[in-house]
Specification:
single chain; 179 residues; alpha+beta; Alpha-Beta Plaits; 3-stranded antiparallel beta sheet; two-stranded antiparallel sheet; 6 helices; binds iron/sulfur cluster
Length: 179
């Protein structure tokens, strides 16, 4: 009984002289191989070679600072709420007197984590943020064998203060950051 219409009749005719010699078949196979040798290879030798990303590529997250180097995130939780992968975890804390130079808002994220193994890099967290505190860069999380390393902590995500200072200096603003 024939279950599909894709079955093929096996050819059981005796082999011809050229088939028995195998040489024409080998020559045909080699010509196909040689044809590919001179073609431009589509393979990229990653990580030595990297393809340029699309301008709209979304990669690793960065927690942003303001022009004075203070953390912008106010731990409102909107990014976590909008995350379809439930990849964001945070704990809010209240800013204490004397910490105004560290945190822009009265509330800040004492803990902020993103599980990059859950993240689908959709960018919803960036869209949802009312404080322009999180954005996705064009870099990708480096590979690792340890799953724990893919849980990015706040220190991994936060833009270093000196980078904010350098950005300001590059824009021609010599005002130093608060200590
Ligand atoms: S990019 Fe998407 S999946 Fe990843 S943390 Fe942001 S909202 Fe969640
Ligand atoms: S990153 Fe933005 S949306 Fe997420 S908690 Fe901080 S301020 Fe709110």
């Amino acid at each position: 009984m024939q279950l599909t219409n894709r079955s093929q009749q096996v050819n059981r005719d005796p082999m011809t002289l050229s088939e028995r010699l195998y040489l024409p078949g080998i020559a045909k196979g080699l010509s196909i191989t040689l044809g590919h040798v001179f073609k431009k290879t589509p393979t990229v030798k990653y990580p030595d070679e990297k393809r340029p990303f699309s301008p709209v590529f979304r990669g690793l997250h960065i927690l942003n600072r303001d022009e004075e180097g203070r953390e912008k995130c106010t731990a409102c939780g909107l990014c976590a709420l909008s995350c379809p992968a439930e990849a964001i975890t945070m704990e809010a804390a209240e800013r204490l007197p004397g910490e105004e130079h560290l945190y822009r808002e009265e509330k800040y994220a004492a803990k902020y984590e993103i599980n990059m193994l859950r993240c689908i890099f959709c960018g919803y967290c960036e869209e949802a943020c009312p404080k322009d505190a999180i954005y996705l860069t064009q870099s990708i999380p480096p590979p690792n064998y340890d799953r724990e390393t893919f849980i990015y902590k706040k220190d991994d995500l936060l833009l270093p203060a000196k980078t904010a200072a350098q950005e300001r200096a590059a824009e021609g603003d010599p005002t130093p950051l608060n200590p």
